[in-house]
């Protein structure tokens, strides 16, 4: 890691503060660790950075990803078949840091792989590798205390999710446990590219803003430049996973180039890949 | 149970945030309905008039004589309408869902018995019903797929993962996340996030409540041992619950050893797993060292599941219940023995419990009684048994 750079919640804060002044949300690409190939993740993270991403998410695959739609299921199983493990996924982040990755990185995975490593050991390994935050979609606030404490003790952000079905008082309680940003789920459903960003998502973003000053990242279903454009001034970042992974799966033998083109397209600064 | 839907350290509600309000709503509705004598009376009348409860206790006369040990008594859940104990829970949950104003019902199924039970109750109330079933299970339980269609349900085959019960449950949860506003998910066992393990126990405890009362009436005594098979564990919790306070009554849960624990091809979560989170609850789980859920094997689709209800995990650790295993081969032998000696074709799931009940009867000896939960009938399994070539070739 480069000395002097902020880590954890501070690295997210710095990245959000450095966002362009046009109100357009920053891009947080999601890549499945070990997809398409076992060693592709570190180069992909660097490509995300070159494309001007605000941060990146690395998904550690789980055999039974019940918050995920078909694309992330498929990429996860492919990665597992090729031997991906939590330790190897985290090692790819460390490799990317060594190669010059400076944007914030959040790891997204399910609670069982975390428990298998051990909550404390998982947080420690993430911190050593240069991970800044952790997102666990099957760990609601009621079950999250132990992980949140372990992450905090290692200087990492616990990034909780809120959904359109979350009542506003609960949004406030959840946001109070958040660091880095609040992950806003745009739809009542699983991950996967969708046609448009619906009114429930916009309503949720407003409700989150009414209870916290933390940055808001909208995820699940965001897939096109016009989605990002339409969210100008409404949230600080968007998470793009399935659409990017679909592009990588369709594409040729340079996943980094595909990702870079795709993310530039979302940012409105290049040709869509 | 301790705080926040826990059985000791097990249980909890590990669900996506989208579902948190739904499980909270379900818990509130459950508490309210079960405290309402009107709801309980409605459920009891359905159990009596429609399901055919109470079910009898039958002495397995020839089996007992052949084992030359304790008497073997069968709790006849195979006689419940649709052929298994699953209807008890389906009736309870669908009545609750109607009370909650839900118009669409979804379910997962392994052997198909739970799917058939839910489809049956939905037909009674004219409710839309979607049942998720692993592709592999639709093949080995084809008759039940057809039955669900006859009853007006839509069966959606699931092609992900191992294409069995685990994957059907994933897909049902994804449907629930997507359609949570109008949909109730009828989980078929004492698994899943709180409040499901408690809710399903409440609807299945009728098995043990009836059996205990009947035992006292007929024998003036309790059984020495109560035996039930454990996949997710709903028939076992159903019969155990009434006896948990009776410390002299042994509780034996039987998990599927498949081709043998040593082969790795089994479904024995409590005997060979370690705790983890699957489908919203912390419980014993068959998983690798990285927390990936392992594929399982059992000849019986209903036991072919890598997890188990969290209350069983607590009963295992406290040693109030003991958990043992039975291989495919032992279950098949018990299947044929019950057919030939008692004129009852048992489900392959229940055959696991029968095999251990026979073993236990021999060990305990005369003057004792073993009560075994015959959780379902075996009509659905005849194709599986026929394919193995067991048309009576296994001598009793």
What does this structure look like?
The complex is a heterodimer of chains A (273) and B (396). With 273 residues, chain A is an alpha/beta fold. Chain A has one domain: Aldolase class I (TIM Barrel), CATH 3.20.20.70. Helices cover 44% and strands 12% of the residues of chain A. Chain A is built from twelve helices and nine strands. A nine-stranded parallel sheet of chain A has the order 5-4-3-2-1-9-8-7-6. In chain A, α2 (41-50) packs across α4 and α5 crosses α6. Chain A is globular. A six-stranded mixed sheet of chain B has the order 3-4-14-9-10-13, sandwiched between helices. A four-stranded parallel sheet of chain B has the order 7-6-5-8, with helices on both faces. A two-stranded antiparallel sheet of chain B has the order 1-2. Chain B has helices at 20-34, 37-51, 61-67, 86-99, 113-125, 135-140, 142-150, 165-178, 196-204, 206-219, 234-240, 269-272, 310-318, 328-342, 348-364, 382-388; strands at 6-7, 10-11, 57-59, 71-76, 104-109, 128-134, 154-158, 183-186, 225-229, 250-258, 274-278, 281-285, 321-327, 369-374. In chain B, β5 (104-109), α5 and β6 (128-134) form a beta-alpha-beta unit. Chain B is globular, with a radius of gyration of 19 Å. The longest helix of chain B is centred in the last third of the chain and has 17 residues, at 348-364. By secondary structure, chain B is of the alpha/beta class. At the A-B interface, α3, α5 and β6 of A face α1, α8 and β11 of B.
């Amino acid at each position: 890691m480069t000395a002097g750079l902020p880590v954890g919640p501070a690295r997210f804060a710095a990245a959000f503060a450095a966002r362009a002044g046009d109100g357009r949300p920053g891009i947080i690409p999601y890549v499945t660790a070990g997809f398409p190939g076992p060693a592709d993740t570190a180069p992909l993270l660097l490509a995300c950075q070159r494309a001007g991403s605000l941060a990146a998410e690395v998904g550690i695959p789980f055999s039974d990803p019940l918050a995920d739609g078909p694309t992330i299921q498929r990429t996860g199983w492919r990665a597992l078949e090729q031997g991906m493990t939590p330790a190897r996924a985290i090692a790819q982040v460390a490799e990317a840091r060594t190669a010059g990755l400076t944007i914030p990185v959040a790891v997204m995975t399910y609670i069982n792989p975390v428990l298998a490593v051990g909550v404390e050991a998982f947080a420690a390994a993430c911190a050593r590798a240069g991970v800044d935050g952790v997102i666990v979609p099957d760990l609601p606030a009621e079950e999250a205390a132990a992980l949140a404490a372990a992450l905090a003790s290692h200087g990492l952000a616990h990034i909780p999710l809120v959904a359109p079905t979350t009542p506003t008082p609960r949004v406030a309680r959840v946001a109070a446990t958040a660091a880095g940003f609040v992950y806003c789920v745009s739809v009542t459903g699983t991950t996967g590219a969708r046609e448009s960003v619906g009114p429930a998502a916009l309503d949720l973003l407003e409700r989150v803003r009414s209870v916290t000053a933390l940055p808001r990242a909208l995820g699940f279903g965001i897939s096109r430049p016009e989605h990002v454009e339409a969210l100008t001034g409404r949230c600080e970042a968007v998470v793009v996973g399935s659409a990017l992974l679909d592009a990588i799966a369709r594409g040729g033998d340079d996943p980094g180039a595909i990702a870079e083109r795709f993310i530039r397209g979302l940012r409105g600064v290049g040709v869509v890949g | 149970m301790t705080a926040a839907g826990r059985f000791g350290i097990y249980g909890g509600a590990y669900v996506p945030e989208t579902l948190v309000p739904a499980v909270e709503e379900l818990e509130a509705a459950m508490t309210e309905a079960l405290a309402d004598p009107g709801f309980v009376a409605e459920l009891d009348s359905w159990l009596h008039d429609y399901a055919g409860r109470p079910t009898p206790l039958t002495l397995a006369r020839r089996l007992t004589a052949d084992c030359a040990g304790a008497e073997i008594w069968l709790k006849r859940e195979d006689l419940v309408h649709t052929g298994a104990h699953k209807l008890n829970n389906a009736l309870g949950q669908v009545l609750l869902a109607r009370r909650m104003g839900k118009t669409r019902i979804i379910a997962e199924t392994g052997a198909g018995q739970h799917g058939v039970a839910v489809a049956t109750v939905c037909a009674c109330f004219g409710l839309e019903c979607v049942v998720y079933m692993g592709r592999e299970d639709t093949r080995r339980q084809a008759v039940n797929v057809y039955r669900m269609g006859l009853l007006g349900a839509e069966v959606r085959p699931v092609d992900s993962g191992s294409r069995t019960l685990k994957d059907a449950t994933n897909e049902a949860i994804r449907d629930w996340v997507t359609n949570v506003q109008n949909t109730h998910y009828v989980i078929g066992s004492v698994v899943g996030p709180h409040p499901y393990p408690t809710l399903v126990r409440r609807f299945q405890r009728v098995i043990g409540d009836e059996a205990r009362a009947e035992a006292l009436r007929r024998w003036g005594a309790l059984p020495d041992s109560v035996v039930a098979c454990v996949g997710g564990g709903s028939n076992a919790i159903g019969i155990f619950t009434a006896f948990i306070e009776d410390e002299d009554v042994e509780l034996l849960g039987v998990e599927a050893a498949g081709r043998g624990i040593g082969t790795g091809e089994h479904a024995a979560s409590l005997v060979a797993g370690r705790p983890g989170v699957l489908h919203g609850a912390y419980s014993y789980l068959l998983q690798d060292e990285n927390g990936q859920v392992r594929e399982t094997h059992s000849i019986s689709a209903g036991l072919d599941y890598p997890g188990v209800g969290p209350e069983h995990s607590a009963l295992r650790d406290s040693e109030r219940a003991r958990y043992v295993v039975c291989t495919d081969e032992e279950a098949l032998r018990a299947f044929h023995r019950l057919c030939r000696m008692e004129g009852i074709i048992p489900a392959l799931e229940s055959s696991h419990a029968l095999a251990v009940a026979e073993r236990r009867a021999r060990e305990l000896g005369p003057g004792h009684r073993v009560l075994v939960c015959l959780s379902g009938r075996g009509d659905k399994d005849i194709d599986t048994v026929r394919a193995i070539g067991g048309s009576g070739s296994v001598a009793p």
